[in-house]
Amino acid sequence: MSSGHVKRIAYQTIVTKEVLRFARIWVQTILPPAITTTLYFIIFGKLIGERIGMMEGYSYIEFIVPGLILMSVIQNSYANVVSSFFSTKLQHYIEELLIAPVPNWVVLAGYVTGGMARGLIVGTVVTGISLFFTDLTINSYSLTLLVFVLTSILFSLAGFINAVYAKSFDDIAIVPTFVLIPLTYLGGVFYSIQLLPEFWQKVSLANPVLYMINTFRYGLLGVSDIDVRIALVIIIAFIAVLTWYSLRLLSRGVGIKE
């Protein structure tokens, strides 16, 4: 059996395991974010949004739909990889991966693909739900799909790094609670940074989530607070750095061989 064939089988095996893992418990992995986002549409989009009026030339519910869709992708891509890889460590079958003739990049690609699958499925479900509340216009199909995929990759990698360092379930809950959720909520999901004082506009530019949400909003609605070309460069740069760092952690055995 050739080396390429072994790598392909290893990759397919990891991806299949990851997809079946969250698909079997879809009531816990796919249904909750769909219900939560529906409540966002009802409360912020309909009840409060009708009093807010227009924002950037769109009704408030149209304005927040791109952010809510991408927020579901971010949270679910991240959650899938961090919980799955930490379980692999906790149940000690990570040793089987370490002794197998499988390169680290194949292992990383398998887990990231699993995270992408859950993030994209939940994002698609949320997109379908949004159609019950508003008509969804798409300014650029290619840009929308590109940001959809890049965001799921980036946060799958972030979840992987969190899982490598985590030593308990408390450790995998700290980062989403104190870092991921605040960054997401302050990333322009519910407002345009043009509404902020100048100082806080500049502070907001340090939030990487802002670039993803605005690029995705530009793909759907054609409006953005920032230059989407710069945003794409930043997103791709983050993916490159996190990929390099994840492979470095795997090669050094940090959190795995200790």
Summarize this structure briefly.
The protein is mostly helical and 258 residues long. 78% of the residues lie in helices and 2% in strands.
Walk me through the topology.
Blueprint: H1 3-24, H2 26-29, H3 31-52, E1 54-55, E2 58-59, H4 60-90, H5 94-99, H6 104-130, H7 141-165, H8 169-185, H9 198-204, H10 208-221, H11 228-252
Antiparallel strand pairs: 1-2
Helix pairs in contact: 1-6, 3-4, 3-6, 4-6, 4-7, 4-8, 4-10, 6-7, 7-10, 7-11, 10-11
Q: Explain this structure to me?
A:
By secondary structure, this protein is mostly helical. The chain is 78% helix and 2% strand. The protein has eleven helices and two strands; from the N terminus they run αααββαααααααα. It has helices spanning 3-24, 26-29, 31-52, 60-90, 94-99, 104-130, 141-165, 169-185, 198-204, 208-221, 228-252, and strands spanning 54-55, 58-59. A hairpin with a 2-residue loop joins strand 1 and strand 2 (58-59). The longest helix has 31 residues, at 60-90. The radius of gyration is 19 Å and the shape is elongated.
User: Topology as H/E string?
Assistant: HHHEEHHHHHHHH
Label the structural class: mainly alpha
Principal-axis shape equals elongated
Low-confidence stretches: none
What proportion of the residues is helical, as a percent range? over 70%
- Into which percentage range does the β-strand content fall? under 5%
- How many helix segments? 11
Question: Rg from C-alpha positions?
Answer: 19 Å
Largest sheet: 2 strands, antiparallel
What average pLDDT do the residues reach?
89
Strand arrangement, major sheet: 1-2
Distance between the termini: 33 Å
